[in-house]
Design brief:
The complex is a heterodimer. Chain A is an all-alpha fold. Chain A contains twelve helices and no strands. In chain A, α5 packs parallel to α10 and α8 runs antiparallel to α9. Chain A is globular. Chain B is mainly α. Chain B is built from twelve helices and no strands. In chain B, α6 packs across α8 and α8 packs antiparallel against α11. The longest helix of chain B has 34 residues. Classes of the chains: A mainly alpha, B mainly alpha. At the A-B interface, α1, α3, α4, α5 and α7 of A face α1, α3, α4, α5 and α6 of B.
């Protein structure tokens, strides 16, 4: 630069040598986040109206020893793991095919995978009601093909919840896996192939290890989303497949038991924190490698 | 074992799971019969007429649009200055602050909803609209801060310094250099925010009242009582609206860039 020496301090026009201007820009946002989110959430988790923190922790203790509540936690974690595994198994091949494709259709296929992210969860989940509901398409297909005389119960089963959640989170997994695979240099694939590795070997020894951190991030996003999702377990699981989110809603609005609601919310929040902690640990490890 | 056919088979299965249920909804909406069935019994658009004529749906649609527009505008009005301060100011504890502004992404939405229900609606006796507005704005803040921040982080700060060095006033440099740099970020955050608010269920579920109900929650309640083709028709109309948003996104910043974060 000839005309101006780059100053050491920020020379940002609106806050030139005026750190107070920066504070002023932050203030409305800080007020909103602190009083519209952080304080209410902390109060709700530990001491909701009319309930002491010790009540919440007593209820939390009961929850962690009660078979019914433990069943809900177990179902939430179990279904979350199954959904995560299925999403990665389906998303990774899509990501590889799209990221390595030279076809002009690849952009359209990518857009088709992203589009459901914009569409209401209610609309997306409703499709499964048409398919799995009583007198639905799947039931009539099963009886029509002679697999069974009577259509089996498909709705309100773990299968229904898994299908709904996989549909819900697969686009997210595709997007995250796509970014992970796309940043692996395609020249490395060519080098491996040129040196005689099979496609599978190239995939396993080059693409998978190099995109793994991104795939782990995808998995944590899907898992955290699955264990907190409300609409899909509500519509497809009903009361026979209670998960933490539907149980939390029932405690807050149906039975109005705020100690139990806080204890359930604590379990959910701690689980999400653990999972996102894992994600950022992976991201940090990735930073060290590169 | 060949890798390609297996990958292709899994990819096809993935697309079937993602997209086919949506086709069933659209198919079901055009039935002439009175129950939701696929394949539909005959062809008719009468359920679209019923969906449009349904007063609770049209009221809820107005409420949802109002809430989405106002909360997106608020989140941008509060979030863009935050992004400016974080990326252009010298703020101590920058990464900690940024983490605070992104934290609504980590806390489950039902938890935020219940917290605002207890504190704002029961504790401070505020209206459901105010509680929804606070909740939705908080929910959209991370997008406003992160997405506009990303476009600031990409832009070279020396552009602004050059404008200043060439004698431009601070306000003039902001208006002619920084603001145009921000535009794609604001556009992206605006569209993301609108979609996120419009589709939200967990927050609205706990905060809405009889006077102010959002469309997704109203549809959810309706499905619980009966699932006739009206819901399929309403869903198809929402799908059409969503396609319009996608086209706007593609024409401005780029569809996969905004909603997938893919460049």
């Amino acid at each position: 630069m000839i005309f101006v020496a780059r100053p050491k301090e920020s020379n940002y026009p609106l806050m030139n040598n005026r750190p107070r201007a920066g504070a002023l820009l932050l203030l409305p946002g800080l007020l909103l986040i602190v009083f519209g989110f952080a304080v209410p959430s902390a109060v709700m988790l530990f001491s909701p109206p009319g309930v002491t923190p010790s009540d919440v922790f007593v209820r939390l203790g009961e929850m962690l020893s009660d078979p019914y509540d433990l069943g809900i936690i177990g179902r939430t974690l179990g279904l979350g793991l199954v959904v995560t595994a299925l999403c990665i198994v389906l998303a990774f091949p899509i990501a590889c095919l799209l990221a390595r494709s030279t076809s002009r259709w690849a952009g359209i296929w990518l857009a088709l995978a992203v589009f459901p992210l914009l569409l209401s969860n209610v609309v997306r989940t409703f499709g499964w009601l048409v398919i799995l509901g009583s007198n639905g398409f799947a039931g009539r297909l099963i009886t029509g093909l002679g697999f069974a005389d009577e259509a089996p119960q498909l709705l309100y089963t773990p299968l229904a919840v898994v299908l709904g959640l996989v549909q819900l989170f697969l686009p997210l997994a595709v997007v995250a896996c796509y970014s992970a695979v796309a940043q692996v240099d395609a020249g490395l694939d060519d080098a491996a192939r040129g040196l005689g590795a099979s496609r599978l070997r190239t995939l396993w020894s080059v693409v998978v290890p190099l995109s793994l951190p991104g795939v782990v991030v995808a998995a944590t996003l899907v898992f955290a989303g699955s264990i907190t999702a409300y609409t899909t377990p509500y519509l497809l699981g009903g009361s026979s497949q209670r998960m933490l989110a539907t149980q939390l809603f029932s405690y807050s609005s149906v039975t109005v038991n705020w100690a139990a609601a806080s204890a359930t919310a604590l379990v959910m929040t701690v689980l999400v924190f653990l999972v996102s902690g894992l994600s950022s640990a992976v991201a940090r490890a990735k930073g060290r490698v590169q | 074992m060949k890798a390609r056919p297996i990958a292709a088979a899994l990819a096809v299965l993935g697309y079937v799971v993602m997209l086919v249920p949506i086709l069933f909804v659209v198919g079901g909406a055009f039935t002439a019969g009175s129950t939701l069935k696929f394949p539909p019994e005959g062809f008719s658009v009468r359920w679209f007429g019923e969906a449009v004529a349904n007063e609770s749906f049209s009221q809820a649609l107005t409420s949802s649009l109002l809430l989405a527009v106002v909360s997106t505008a608020l989140a941008l009005a509060v979030g863009v200055p935050v992004a400016l301060a974080l990326h252009r100011g010298h703020i101590p504890g920058r990464s900690l602050l940024e983490g605070l502004f992104l934290s609504p992404l980590v806390i489950p939405e039902l938890v935020i909803g219940l917290a605002l229900y207890q504190q704002l609606m029961i504790g401070l006796k505020q209206t459901s609209f105010l509680a929804l507005l606070v909740g939705h704005t908080v929910l959209l803040m991370p997008y406003a801060v992160r997405v506009t921040g990303a476009s600031l982080a990409l832009a070279d700060q020396s552009l602004e310094e050059a404008a200043r060095g060439l004698g431009s006033s601070p306000w003039h440099a902001f208006r002619t250099v920084t603001l145009p740099l921000l535009r794609p970020g604001v556009m992206s955050a605006g569209l993301l925010g609108f979609i996120t608010s419009f589709n939200n269920v967990p927050l609205s579920l706990l905060l809405q009242s009889r006077d102010f109900g959002t469309l997704p929650v109203t549809m959810l309640d309706y499905i619980q009582q009966s699932y006739d083709p009206v819901i399929a028709a309403m869903s198809t109309l929402i799908l059409a609206g969503t396609v319009v948003i996608a086209v706007i996104a593609e024409r401005t910043v780029g569809f996969t860039k905004i909603f997938g974060g893919i460049n």
